[in-house]
Amino acid sequence: MKKIKIHNKNFKLFISHEKILSAVEKIADSLNEKLKGKQPLFICILNGSFMFAADLFKRMESVEAEISFVKLASYKGDKTTGEVKQLIGLSQNIEGRTVVVLEDIVDSGITIENIQEQLRQLNPREVIIATLLLKPDALIKKVQLDYVGMEIPNDFIVGYGLDYDGQGRNLADIFSIINE
Ligand code: IMP
Ligand code: MG
Fold first, then answer.
1. Which of 5, 31, 37, 73 is the most buried (most CB within 10 A)?
2. What pLDDT, on the 0 to 100 scale, is given for residue 91?
3. Which residues cross the membrane (predicted)?
């Protein structure tokens, strides 16, 4: 079993890059079907979602798609702070548009609820939420997720864009914390 150390914590291999990509492909297939004939705007939630967004977006072959980025932060170290800080906002006009929000992971649901509420006020035609990962046992908000790549246990993870205090985003696989 492949193990790594980031800062003071140990992690073990949890989801291989291959498995991640097959989850991304499944979401991409469904979205290509669902978005045919539309001109959606994808919104990637930075920082964590940049790898998921890149892998998904290049698979949007049957859609005239655009992408934009917002930057939100709610995690400090390996825990949620319970509040969302907006670090970069949305510059596009989304009125009447189909918007697809791309999130790396839904944990408490606070981030997704926050962005959904912000987008609603800008009168889009529809808002579709796609998340690579979901921790169902950590959810404290009632959020409607349209596409979920994989459900995972409520353990802290890093890799494929996800970090522990800034480190680990560059890992191609996803690693799960070893509770010692
Ligand atoms: P939420 O607002 O609690 O749903 O958390 C969402 C954000 O927290 C995600 O977009 C991630 O950036 C971050 N996050 C949640 N769980 C983890 C984790 O296990 N590792 C690293 N970041 C996480
Ligand atoms: Mg995120």
1. 31
2. 82
3. none
Q: What is the pLDDT of residues 113-139, one digit of tens each?
A: 999 999 999 999 999 999 999 999 999
Which three-class secondary structure state does DSSP give residue 127?
strand
What kind and span of H or E run contains 169?
none
User: Cβ < 6 Å from ligand 1: which residues?
Assistant: 48, 74-75, 80, 103-111, 156-158, 162
Nearest to residue 139, comparing CAs of 170, 180, 109?
A: 109
Q: What is the pLDDT of residues 22-53, one digit of tens each?
A: 999 999 999 999 999 999 999 999 999 999 99
pTM, two decimal places: 0.95
Residue position matching structure tokens 């045919």: 36
132: Cβ contacts below 8 Å, ≥ 6 apart: 20, 23, 24, 27, 49, 52, 103, 104, 105, 149, 150, 160
Ligand 1 nearest-atom number relative to CA 109: 4
Identify the DSSP state of 109.
S
